[in-house]
Each structure stands twice: as C-alpha cells, then as structure tokens.
Amino acid sequence: MIAHNLRLISPIAEDVYAGLTSSPRRLPAKLFYDAAGSALFEEITRLPEYYVTRTEAAILRRHAAEICRRAGKGVTVIELAAGSAEKTRLLLAELLRDRMSVTYVPVDVSEAALAAARDSIERALPNVRVQPVLRELSDLRFLARYPGPRLVLFIGSTIGNLEDDEAVALLRGIAAELGPQDRLLLGTDLVKDLAVLLPAYNDAGGVTARFNRNQLARINRELGGTFDLEGFRHVALWNAERSRIEMHLEARRRQSVRIRDLGLVVEFAAGERIHTENSYKYTLPRVRALLAQAGFGLEQSWSDERGWYAVHLAHIR
Ligand code: AVI
Questions:
Q1: pTM to 2 decimals?
Q2: Residue 113 pLDDT exceeds 90
Q3: Given pLDDT bands bounded at 50, 70 and 90, which one contains residue 1?
Q4: Mutate which of 155, 157, 210, 245 to test ligand 1's pocket (most atoms within 8 Å of Cβ)?
Q5: What is the pLDDT of residues 178-234, one digit of tens each?
Q6: CA distance 96 to 127
Q7: Rg, Å, the chain Cα set
Q8: Positive or negative: CA dihedral 21, 23, 24, 30
C-alpha cells in the first residue's frame, strides 16, 4: 500500500502503519489525544502521583504577576498544545487586573480539549476573548496573524514529549514568528528522584495504564483493529542514559492483531513491546542550551522549592 493512499483512509493511518511495521514497534505520542485520551490525560493531571501539573500551577500562581509584568501589559496570549488550559487561567486573570480584555488563542489537535478550554475560560473570565485554533504545531506561520506583543505559552512539560531535534525545530519555528517585544513561556519537568518519577507514570489507580492503552483502543475504533487491550501490559521505565521516562505496551502473550483498514496483520511475540511515549526530564543547563540552539535567550527561570519543575521566560536574540 502506498503512503498517499493511507492518508486518505484516516489522519492516523500513516503513523500507525509506519509505527507497527517498524522494528522495534512504536506509536507516536500524539495518538493519545482523541476525546477519550484527552479526558484520561485530564484525569492524570489530578492524580496524587502526577506532580507535574500541580507543581507547574503553583509556580505560575506564585509568579504570575512577575511573568505578566515582564511579558508586557498588552500581550495577546497564544498557547501551543493548550489542552484544557486549566493553568493558563492564572495568567489570564493576572493580565485582566490591568486591562479590560485579553485575547487568548489556545492551539491544539483535540477539538474536544479546545471546546472544554473555551467553555471553562469564558465561564471563569468573561473578559477573555477566546479564539481557538485546531491544528498541529508543524507550521507556526499562523502566529503572524495575531497582533503583538505576544506571549507564546508552551507549558505543561509538552516539550518533554519531543526529541531534542524536534524540540529545537519547534522552538525555531516559534522564534521565526516572534519579534523583540514578544516572549516565550516554556514549562519543563526536571530530573528528580525515581521514587517520585516512576509512580507519576505508573499510578496505583491505573489511569496512566488506561491512557497508554487508549492508543490501541483508538486503532480499534478508527481503523478497525482487533487489539485485545488486556493483552498488553503498561510499562513505564526510566532511561537514565537519555534522561527520559519511556512508556511501552508489552504483549502479555504471543498474539496476532488485524487492522482491517490498513490491510495489516501484526504478529506480536510474548514480551514484545510497542514504544508509545518519551517524557524527557531536563536540567537547567540543558534547557538553556535547547533555547540557545533555537535562537532564544533565557530571561528568567522560576522553580518550586523542591526543584522538581521549572518555568522559563525567553526572548529572541
Ligand atoms: C503531556 N505530557 C507532558 C505528559 C507527560 O508527562 O509527559 C503526558 C503523560 N504521559 C503519561 N502521563 C502523562
């Protein structure tokens, strides 16, 4: 089957075909975020083990005034991979202290997440004009449509789900659209004790396992797959060499899965894994280096007392 045919079948067909026929097998993390996966991710953000969201929110709450002062008064706020935009409210509320209205542009691949973001922001902050944009982050030229000064948010540790070269390419794409008045606010998770890291990706209630398996459920729903979800074990491990948490789905037994719309049968050996996600954990020098490679200078970083997470304000150089 040839690639352009696959694209016609479904937007996920090409990635699924390429990933499941590669060795080792893999599926791209963006496959998590259909409506069901986005809802599961929201559940993850509220788990006691998942410190990421809570820690970032605390940093934003504590430093909102300074972040907004440095970003400038009249900014348009554009949030990449916005999700439910829960934490962004803290910044928008702060901006509204000095202004009658703020324009907020959440950008995401999930229509459901954008609708939820719009509803919750409009309900909580009626003076915020929400202008959702449904798209992937591969082409950022649309940023030029919005009046400056702009504050581009890439928070939630989303950068951690990208490889370094992808992260730098994305940051470069942002930098290319920004002027000297504009700012980037970047949220990064930091390297920490494994006793904290591992449970965050393997919670006792099994929500992360369901989130992981939703990739298989989605293939069943959208491409006529026959994955038995219970036939795959959720695996989260720390790769010290690469400084990342990896998530995999491991076949509990030998099995054969048919994916009708791809005309594909995949044979899994017992113990064979599908690599579904990387979540990189950074140090401050590494963040500074990534930003520098993309043409950004670091203006200020804020962290929590335990040094688990950091938020960075950057400008183009
Ligand atoms: C969206 N992203 C930052 C999450 C993370 O922590 O890497 C996705 C996630 N995967 C498992 N739990 C949460």
A1: 0.95
A2: no
A3: low
A4: 157
A5: 999 999 999 999 999 999 999 999 999 999 999 999 999 999 999 999 999 999 999
A6: 8
A7: 20
A8: negative
Q: Which residue lies with its CA nearest to atom 2 of ligand 1?
A: 158
- Residue 215 to residue 217: CA distance in whole angstroms: 5
Place of tokens 């440095």: 70
Per-residue pLDDT band at 84 (split at 50, 70, 90): confident
Atom number in ligand 1 closest to CA 41: 13
Nearest CA to ligand 1 atom 7: 279
Span from the CA of 237 to the centroid of ligand 1 (angstroms): 13
Residue 50 CB partners (closer than 8 Å, separation 6+): 44, 200, 203, 208
- Ligand 1 first shell, C-beta below 6 A: 44, 52, 156-158, 160-161, 201, 208, 277, 279
Q: Whose CA is nearest to atom 6 of ligand 1?
A: 279
DSSP symbol at 143: G
**Angular region, 218: left φ>0, alpha ψ -120 to 50, beta rest:** alpha
The DSSP element (H or E) to which 160 belongs, if any, is: none
What does the angle CA 63 – CA 136 – CA 133 come to, to the nearest 5 degrees? Answer: 70
Enumerate the β-bridge partners of residue 268. 255
